[in-house]
Amino acid sequence: MNKDSRIYIAGHKGTAGTALVENLKKRGYENLILKTRQELNLLNQQSVIEFFKNEQPEYVFLAAVLPCGAANVSQRADFIYENTTIQNNIIHQSFKFGVKKLIFFGSGYMYPEKTLNPIKEESMLTDILEYNATSFGVAKISGALMCESYNIQYGTNFITLALNNLYGTRANFDFEKSRVLPALLRKFHLAKLLEEEREGEILKDLKMKSFVEAKKYLANFGISKDCVEIWGTGKVRREFIHSDDLADAAIYVMENVNFSDLYNKDEKIKNTHINIGTGIDYSIAEVTQMVKQNVGFKGKLIFNPNRPDSTMDRLMDCSKIHSLGWRHKIELEDGIKMMYDWYLNKGE
Prior knowledge:
Elements: E1 7-10, H1 15-26, E2 32-33, H2 45-55, E3 59-62, H3 76-96, E4 101-105, H4 134-154, E5 158-163, E6 165-167, H5 180-195, H6 199-206, H7 211-220, E7 227-231, E8 237-242, H8 243-256, E9 274-276, E10 281-283, H9 284-295, E11 300-304, H10 319-323, H11 332-345
Parallel strand pairs: 1-2, 1-3, 3-4, 4-5, 5-9, 6-8, 7-11
Antiparallel strand pairs: 8-10
């Protein structure tokens, strides 16, 4: 990938996509192709065909996604339809128009609900998926297998990266749609504002006019001036990766790793995707305490065991990406501080 190569980032407005754009620009890649949803409907096959015909991208980062958040159950159809359609359109047209290399962002939800930690790439398709995330997980598995199958049949160079909980600047902080860390950070931030009676800032953050209604809204999410309630026991363990680390890993793989590096020529070609993570997990209780301290909320932290915990721990086995020469740089405590600094200065 040369500095003047035509590089398309699908999903450049998302958490992963914005980090990719910033990282690529810092490295001197200037010929970036960026299209908003209004400019390019990735669900429309003909629009995607016309885009590839006109733009002729040489390299593609497929980060466009309908993410799996708190609305897992209510959006089952959307998760499987939108994600598979976007993937099918971009991966197939990348093949048809001779894209030199594609990086597809998979997910830890590709792995079974019951599997040994740390989770190896070989665990995919060995058992059933987590119930609430089945539609999302199946969509991501489909994308990973599509990349692998096109490589085998057509000689393409399409690589899938599997990741766990993503966080970082420009994350989605919506309580009902965000991932774990952004949601926790915003909860404690708003609790701190309540604690300090900063009503105007609360209304601005929530985009509401009535402080009475704002307090009722926050109470529905377990947020008050005295305490923050977290669902579950806090014992479930999670691995987190900062968006800047993910972008660094994706660009490293794009520049240095080929499909031929990911399988043994004497064995069946399968599970060629790569886990991207830190190889370090934390309990939700530990993570929540980190966020609370970083934000500076002085009230109580309450775990509600009557509310559901997630059904599984998730820790990636990152030995494959380590053997290929990449390791994460941002530790969780530093990453939380970076995310909160961004939220205070640039977040809405």
